[in-house]
Structure formats: C-alpha cells, structure tokens
Amino acid sequence: MRTYVLRENPAKDDTSWDFRVPHDALRLRTGQGKLITFNSEKITLQGVKFPENRILRADDPSKFILLSFGNLRFADSTLREGGEYIERLLKKGLFLNGRGRSCFVREAKTDKELDDRIYALGDYGRIMNIAKRAKRIGLLFSEAQLDWKLDPKYIADIPDIKMGDEIFSDGCGLMSKHFAIQISRAKKIIFRGVRYTPTVFQIRYLGYKGVLMLHLDLDKEKKHLIQFRKSMKKFSTTADLTFSLVNYSKPYTFGRLNNDVIVLLSSLGVTNEKLLAKQQEYFQWIRQASDDPIKAVDFLFALGAPGDIELAERVLLDGLDNPTVSGKVLQRQLSETAKFKNEKGRSKAPIFVRNSRRLFGVCDPYQVLKEGQVHLRIMTARGGPSTPIHGDVIVVRNPCLHPGDCLKLRAVHHEKLAHLVDCVVFASVARPGHHAAPSMSSGGDLDGDEYFVFWDKDIIPTTVAQSYDYPGNKEFTSKSISRSDLAKHFAFYSGAGVARVSSLHAKWVRASPLGALSPECQELNALHSQSVDGAKVKIPDRLTNPPQRPDAEPYVLELLEADREKFAEEFNANTPVRGAMANEDPEEAKDLLAALLQSRQCAISEYELFNLVCLLARKHNVMDLTPYLNHLDMSALSAEEKRAVSLALNLSPSDYPGMWNSLFRSDILTRRDLYQRSLYQPFSMQRLYSSKEQGLTTFFEFLRRGTQEYTRKLLIIKTEDRFAIGIFMRGNMEWDEDPDVNDNVVVCSFMPNTASTLSGYRPCTTGYRLHMSDTHFQLYNKHVGDTFVFINRRPLHSGFEVAASIALQKISATVQRQIGRIRTEPVVAVEFHVVSNRDRVAHQLFDLWFEHVPTEQFVPRFQRQATPYQFNDLRDVDWRIPENQPLLSSFFPKAESTFPRVDAQEPDASSFGPLPGSTSDGLNFERHTPESMQAHLARKSVVEIEKIVEFALRYHADEEMFLIFSCTMNRQPLDEKALTRWMEMFPPLAFTMLKQFVTQEGSPLPTVIVAMVHSLCRNIIRSANSLGIAALVALEKMASAVADMDVEQYFDLLNLAAHGVRPKDLYQEVLLVLNDSRLNAGSTPLTPAIAYGCKFALSVAFDRAEEAADECPCDENGKPRRQKTPPTHVPLTFIADEPGHVRAIVRVDARTEVRLHSHVRLQASSKATNRWIQAPVMDGIVVQAMKGELKISLLHPAPPELERMDWNMYHAGITGG
Predict the structure, then answer these.
(1) Given CB 3.0 to 4.6 Å as the disulfide criterion, which of 520, 717, 1182, 1209 pairs with 1158?
(2) Res 658: pLDDT
(3) What are the b/e assignments for 667-696, b being 16+ CB within 10 Å?
(4) Phi, psi of 887, deg, nearest 5
(5) 927, 918 in Cβ contact below 8 A?
(6) Alpha-carbon separation of residue 809 from 749, 762, 820 (angstroms)
C-alpha cells in the first residue's frame, strides 16, 4: 500500500477528520494494518506491519487504525494546544470513507459498543484512577510474540516476598524448567544455531504482567507450571487465555556507557582521563576490526547482529582483503559510528564495555543472598556460565539522574541459584528501614526492567552515594471515569515534563562543581521520578535558572563528544580496509591459528572458538592441532562438547592433564570454600606443592620455585580447622629482596565452619612490599612495623616447623572477632597452586581476583555538614562607615573581663566623650547607666531611637536594649505600639515592664498597660524555654489580667504554650497556671458556656502539646533530642514585609511529614565561629506549602543571622488548620 496524503497543512484548530480515500489506496498486504501519521505538514495514510498483541488477536485487525502523533508539533503553539487538538480528534472521531474511528481507533457505531469490547477483557471498571485505568487497558496493546493457550489449572497465585512494607519480588514470578523448554521450542528460540532455553521470560497472561524466572522446585513438586506473584496481577479477566511472550534473557548482552551513567560516574570521582581512555579503547576496538582478522571476529561476535557470526567465519576463511567481506565489516563499523548521534542529531555516548552485561533483574526466591549481594552468573567468553568476578559490581538502571542510582553490590555465587544464568539475582532481604536494591536504582522493579551491570575496575568509583528513596506517585481517584476522560488523558499525556526536568538536570550538572551530587540535581531527580509516567510536576523557580559553567573547567560530556567527532571524522575519511592473510602461506596460517586461540574474545564460547579453529585449519590443511591444545580451555566445555572435541582430536584424559582445576583436589579447601570465593572457575591450575605429600620441611624450597618460575600463583595456609588464608600473587617477584608488589597481591580468608559468608577479602594497595627468603615470607605495608602476613621457619626445639602471624583486622573486623588473634601460631597445612605461564585464558580468570575496587567514601544523599557562621557582635562593627558613626555614642565598648564583646577597632573615647551621668568601668571605656541613657535618648527623635533599637537587636546588645526599653517606658505618653513591637522582637523585655508596673501578685494593673496585657503574657510565654520558672512566677503575677482578658486572647495563649513551650514539665505547668488564673482569679465567675469552652480548650492544648512531645521530644532545656529519622535540613530566609514569617527551602527529594498546618521545630545546625552560644530553637506553624518551599509563621523571634545559618526542621505534629 503506497502512502496516501489525507490532508495537507493541518491546522491546530481543526474540528473535523472525515477523509475520502480511493478503495485502491486501502488495499493491504497480508499482515499489514492502516497507519495514519500526523505532523504539522500533512496527515498521511499508509500500510505497516501491525505489532502482535492480545487485542488484535481477539478481533479483526482490519477494523483498527494505528494513529501516530509523535511528530505533531504546530508552529507557534503550546503543548497544551497540541493536546487539545488530539482530544478533539478522539472525541469527534476519525472517518475513512464514512467509517468512523473513535478514541480506541476501532470502527464502531456507538460508544457503548467500544466500552463493551474493552471491559469484557478485564475488570477495569474497579480502577478509579484515570491514568492507572488507561495504563492497564494499554497492557492489552503491548506487543507480544507468541500465541500459546495456557489452561489456568496449570498456574497458581503465590504471595510476594515481603519484609514490612518492602516488596522484594515485585513483578517476578516462577516458571518450571519443563514449561520453559516448551515455550522455547514453540517460539523457536535459537542462539547461534543452537536451541536455547532462557532463564527469564517477560510475559503477559490474563491480567498478569512481569517476568517469570526458572525455578527447578516446580519440576520436583509437579503441581504447577507457573506461579504468579500478587504484585504481577494488574487486573482480573478470563476472556483471553493466550500466554504472550514479550522478551527473554540472552547471552552476551553487553552494556554501554551512555551520557546518564557517565555523568554519575564522573560525579562519583571517576576522572575524565579514565573515561576518555575507556572511549579510546572503544574506538580502537572499532578501528582494529578492519585491520586484524582476530579483532574482527571479536568485534562481530560481540555485536551479535543477524549475519555477523557468518561474516566472522568469512573473515577467517576469505580474509579482510576480500572486497565483499571488507565491505560488510565496514558497514558494521559505520553503524557503530552512527550511534554517536541520536535520532534528533544530538550527540550521545555509546561506549561499549567488555566487562559488563545488560540483564533482567529477578528476586532470590530462597532468600539465601544477604543484603548488598547479587548472584551474577553469565555466559562468559571461553568460560561458559560462571561468575565473572567475586567482588564489587556496579548495578544501574536507565534513565538515571542520581549518583545513588549506581549501586555498588557484591557479586557472589550460590549453589541454589546456579541455574539462573544471564540475569542478575537481587537479595530478597534487607534490614528494617532499608529498601530492595532494584527500587534504589531509579525506582526500578522486577517486572521486566533491565539493569546495566559492570565490573570494569577502571570505571568503578571508590565513592558511593546514598540512594534516593523513590516514593510511589500519589493516586487520585474519581467517582466515575468516562471514555472522554480517558481520551483527554491520552491527548494530554506528554513527556514534556520529563524532558524539561532532564534538560534542567543536565544544565545544573554542568554548572555545579559537585555535578550530579549537587542538591539541585538531586531535587530534579526527585521531580523526574514523579513525572516519568506523565504526571504533572511543579518545578520550583529556584531550579529553573541554573548558572553558567565556568569556561576554565572542562565538562566531561563535551570532552567525550569532541573526541567522538574527531574519531568519526578521521575514520570516515580513512575507509580503506587493510587486509590480512592474503596468501596461502601455511606458516602464516599457523600463526593465525595460534593468535586466534590466544586472543581475548569477549562474546564467543570455547566450543565456538574451537569450531572456528577447525574451519581455519581445514582451509589451510593444518592437520595436527595438538600443539595448540594448551590454549584451549577444556573445562569451559560441556560434557557433550568435550566428547566432540576428544573425538575430533583423538584425545584421552591423559593427553591433557591440566583440564581439571587442581583446587578441587585441595586438602585444605572445601567445595563450599571454592563456591563462596568463586574459585570453582574452570581455569587450569595445578598443585605444585602440598605439605600433606611433601611435608612442611620443604615448604620454602617449593615457595622459591613457585614464585620464581610462575607469574600466577596461589599460596594457601591453614592455621586451624576454622581458618585458612589464600594469598594470590601475580607478576615476577624477586627472591631475598623487598620488591614493591602494590596491588599485585590479594589476601582472602577461608572459614569453612562459619555459617555466614564473610567478606574476608583484602586487596593490597600501593606501598605494599613482599620479602621472601629461605626462612621468611613477610607481606607488609611500607615498613615492617605494619606487617600483614608473616610466615617463618621455626627452630627445631620449638615443637613445630612453620609458624604464622596474621593481622586479621586488615582483612576485616568481622574476621578478627570470629577468629581472635593469630600470632606465632603453628601452621597446620600449606598448599601452593600455580597457573601455566602459557595459559593466557587462565591468567585472565586468575586476574579477576585483582579487579575488586574497594569503596573509599560513602556520600550521603543529604550533606549534613552545617555551614559555620559569624555571630553578630559589636566588636565586628566598622564604626568608620558613615551610617554607623551616629550610633557610636549609643553603644559603649565594653571590657573583655566584664563582658565578652570588645570593639576590635577601639574607637577613641574622646570622639564622643563621657555623657552626663555615665560611669567609668575603670578601663579605657565607659558604659551607660539608666541616667546616661535617659539623657542620651532625650536628644533623639523617634526614628533615631528605632534605628538604635534595630542596631541593638542586630548585634545582640542586650544591656543597651533593656536600658532603651526602660527609658521609653518612663516617657509620657506611653508609646504602646513601640513597646509592644520591641517585646515581640525581644520577649525578655516583658519582664522589664512587669517589674515596673506589676509589683506583686494580684495587684491591679495600671490603666496605661491594660491594652498591652495580651502582648505582655504572650512574650512571657515565649521566654519560658530560656527563663524557665521565672516565666511561671511572672504569669502568676498576671493572674487577674489573664482571668479578665478576651476569650479569643486567652485561647491564643493556650495555643502558644502548647506549641511554643518545649520542656514537658514546663508546658504542663504553664497550661495549668493559665487555667487556674482563668477559673479562679477573675473579678466575676465564668458563665457555664465560657467555663466549658475553657475546659475544652485546655484539653485541646494538652493534646497538641503531648503530640509535639511525642513527635519531637525535647530535653529539659527545650532542645530536640536525637531521633531515629534525621531531621530535614533547610535554609531559611526572611520574607519582606511579613515580620515573624520565614521561607524554608525544602529539597524536593526530602522525605518529610511536614505539610500545610504542620507544627515544626527549627534548630540551628550551624555553629558560631567567634563565640560559643547555644543552638537557637524556634517553633513555627506552616501557613503555606508549595513544591520545595514552605512559609512558616514563627512563634519565637528569629536570630538576625538566620539567613547565614543552616537549620534542622523537625516535624512536631499537625495543628489541624
């Protein structure tokens, strides 16, 4: 079917989509369906191959049209206008020659007809969230590749593996091996010409979605073929019993470093040089494919595209000088360079990583793995199924924006999980409060997510960041959902939010020295996780304007991009292929055979390599392959493959004595030791020495022979039945010298009687030396005083021949606790195993023990190191500034012996002179008395006095503040507004007023302060945390005033005491004093209604105070106690024109219970650098809550340094609004 244009230049305000098409244009080929594509230039109709899914199998595909809006962008329009266009189309319908198509894009006469068809396939009606219902219906349209009718009697539902609220088996069910083989045969799954049974299948069946992993226990039980987890069931249906296969696990699925992962690794400390070097390795891998036939074979097998394996054979048989072969190799190379740009022409990194895989994640059904472990068993090149490294691996899921998404986990092997190959098995246990590992990497799960796993030591960071707690998005339910609601959801579903967040994240990464570890990037990661399913998110304004990156600092992605552009330009300009093996010289053919067998292939099995060698040998008439057998790893072959090789080469077991790993015959190590330490690997080791056979007397003779003749060796020393160590050594090591061995020695502990798998594994580092002689073996760090392992020959009279001393704490504290102390302990047994110097494959496997990269630093998600600040002090005032000079006479410098603030600049006293009535303190400077302050203020206007007060509060000049307040109280008429305002800013001033106007308890208040009673009581209560019992005495003096004040004002005092007084005994006393004053000190008795209201208000106040004490317990000084959940770290800023209110910036990714109307306690985490003060604590109520931002009404005055300090915010309950 040719492409037919339905409409040219569609307009964004179109309201009709009724098209007439010639009948010839609607003729489709078998298997094709109709596709209508919308873009701003035209609307087109064409025939395409429809994907297989349950909807199309259950219906007539000719009734459907696939609509594509991916490239629909109208000029000069917003995304919303594009969404409205799609919504109108779905509601109005689309018509081809009079046939209508509704929002489900299927021919129908009525809406009900469409609804009946959809809801007959599942119980979607019970899902009352629009997005979730649309998502579940969408599962019916997900592409699947197999029609298999599975009777429900062969399946069962089983619970998820859970600990508390944490689900470890989210989306991961179980499948018998018998059914896996049936499915593989029905699907005709073949890998490189051989039938292959995967261990993981991604499926759709009935209402289930997720993966099924091979589980051999089902074959033993013979009850069910499949067991589905509860988390896999998305809806209920019995309408379609088709078992649909979406994807499955495969061997040699190598991973690549993309931009996201590179940014995270760079932020975690992997240097630009290492990343550039890794990219250069990738370029060399591409380039050499046209130069060297061996490299070409490796290149083609690793790519593994259709036809690549056959092309690799032609490379060996025909040579790279063959134009057809070289042209096809060049096509593969150019396809790699084409990956340097995405479909939109933007640069991207596709760096191929040999030591990596892209794997489905599954759970550990037996719960044998410990937290932080993964079972990793993959098809390795020339090694068969094995664990590639017994050490740390990085596991990450794309897309990834948070450094904590890069999980550093320990790869181990467990016999119960040995059947699971080419997948990553995550632990199904965690400590309380910890999360399942998949959810810690970009919020992943196990319903089909693939994880990039790599163990390349060059790019494994030594710094690890705390993972983000990815929360589930909130679901908003509706009372009813119509087709119009679903259509609107589809029309406005957009990835624009994700794109914008990703774009801002990329800019902040560039701008910040911390890279993706910056708080802004971590907040944007939280927003990204909330927007991935099309949810709308509000991005705080402070995150929308990232600063520019300094030009002097190179950015890693720009460096890599420039390197890629240079390589692509040079490679494309230099396309001629330099061939090899252009003639039939037998000697060259033999050299090629040896090179092929010695090559480091990354995606070819040993048997596949043997077949290539046989093809090449037959081509060049090389009949005898026996000289090349040392390069072939027989232990990597299956029993069937060994028989085939033995038959082809006429071998007997005695012809190849090194075909078995000598460690399996060890007298010291058990099978459990071998599997726990990944020493079961099929590398060719031979035992050079055993004390059981040769005796301990000859140990040092064999030690000399083994270390001087072999470059790869393993020394095993047993000191008791509970403990042995293995010392892996590589390289040439001088005898009777002290050479630097640096990281070429690894020490591993073996503890066969210990129930747990301890991490007794210690690679040596730069500075380590090894001394070996006829009597000593000593491994030490820089100097002999820091010895790790010391083995020596003992005198004859000592009672034993060889002794050992081992610093167990260097292995791990756990090993030391288990074993105790090893100091001059007799050696029970010793073995020495070596690897043939000619066996390069065994060398590579042996060297995996040196790939482990220890973690040196753990970066928490929230950096809690508070920024120090300068406490405001008069000694820091620059009196030379013109605006400060008029204030100089108001603040006399004080002597350090009597007051802890001394003016560093020591202004000349003669510049202002002694004021009338002032007194000298016996030093160079004077201080105000009440009389001198009264005389000083008499010459000041109201505005000037306000400036003095503001200055005194800013610089904590408390003595002057009390004097100014006292003098102002003595003025007539009384300035109530000013006094009230000053008490609100500095509550202890209330006691000065109380002292002057209220001399004894119960005495009537002077008329002049009656209007200020409420403010006076408020500030007494606000001072209670610091003044304690003095506040209770003051309130008792105010008893009659409390009794007679307005009810609303009294309730305000109760509320203030409940939320603002923190010590438990104190808030109880304050509330009771207020209650007693109200009930008993009034001039007239309370009415029953008022009495009841006061009783109820007291009860509410006690409830709120006790809730605050439970949520944020404080000590007797009112300081919040240490809690299990750390407080939220927030910066605070004042709000202009809103005194008493502050703005708190809360990181979007912070997990906090604080919301609108929350009661919070704010404690300064910063410490002053110039004097010691107690950390200020303030209570407040959240009066406005926005994304990443809170507006808090403070119950206590804020320190003037507030904006220079860091604060901890504690949740202290809900006020109820």
Answers:
(1) 1182
(2) 42
(3) ebbeeebbbbbbbbbbbbbbbbbbbeeeeb
(4) -90, -5
(5) yes
(6) 12, 10, 10
d(CA 517, CA 503): 16
Query: 170: closest CA among 234, 235, 231?
Result: 231
Alpha-carbon distance values, 1147 to 28, 659, 1204 (Å): 55, 59, 18
What is the pLDDT, as a whole number, of residue 262? 95
**Please, are residues 505 and 528 in contact by the beta-carbon 8 Å criterion?**
yes
Q: Which two tokens stand for residue 348?
A: 């991207």
HEC string of 783-823 equals: CHHHEEEEEEECCHHHCCCEEEEECHHHCCHHHHHHHCCEE
Chain centroid offset of residue 1096 CA: 49
How many C-beta atoms lie closer than 10 Å to residue 647's C-beta?
9
Least Cα distance to 1168 among 733, 815, 786, 868 occurs for: 868
Structure tokens of 248? 């499955």
CB neighbours of 966 closer than 8 A, spacing ≥ 6? 930, 933, 992, 996
Does the pLDDT value for residue 999 go beyond 80? no
729 pairs with which residues across the strands?
713, 745
- The region of weakest confidence among 338-342, 630-634, 778-782, 989-993 is 630-634
Helix H or strand E segment including 730: strand 723-730
Report pTM. Answer: 0.71
> What is the per-residue pLDDT across 237-289, written as a single tens digit (0 to 9) for each?
776 788 888 899 999 999 999 999 999 999 999 999 999 999 999 999 999 99
> What is the CB neighbour count within 10 angstroms for residue 304?
16
CB 437 within 8 A of CB 409: yes
Mean pLDDT throughout 352-360? 94
Bond into 10 cis (ω within 30): no
Two structure tokens written together for 1028: 């304690």
Q: Is the pLDDT of residue 1001 over 70?
A: no
- Nearest CA to 1195 among 1060, 1068, 1101, 1104? 1060
**Chain position carrying tokens 């609601």:** 485
Count of CB atoms situated within 10 Å of the CB of 269:
17
Task: Provide the 3-class DSSP secondary structure of residue 1212.
Answer: strand
Q: CB neighbours of 1185 closer than 8 A, spacing ≥ 6? A: 1154, 1155, 1156, 1191
Residue 723, pLDDT > 50, answer yes
Bigger pLDDT: 717 vs 321 = 717
Answer whether 856's CB lies under 8 Å from 765's CB.
Answer: no
Degrees (nearest 5) of the Cα angle 1208, 1159, 864?
A: 10
Pairing status of strand 1158-1164 against strand 1177-1186: antiparallel
pLDDT, average across residues 1040-1049: 89
Peptide bond into 365 cis (omega under 30): no
pLDDT digits (tens, 9 = 90+) for 53-80: 666 666 777 778 888 887 788 887 877 7
Q: What is the DSSP letter of 453?
A: E
Q: Tokens representing 699?
A: 């140990």
Q: How far apart are CA 811 and CA 818, in angstroms?
A: 12
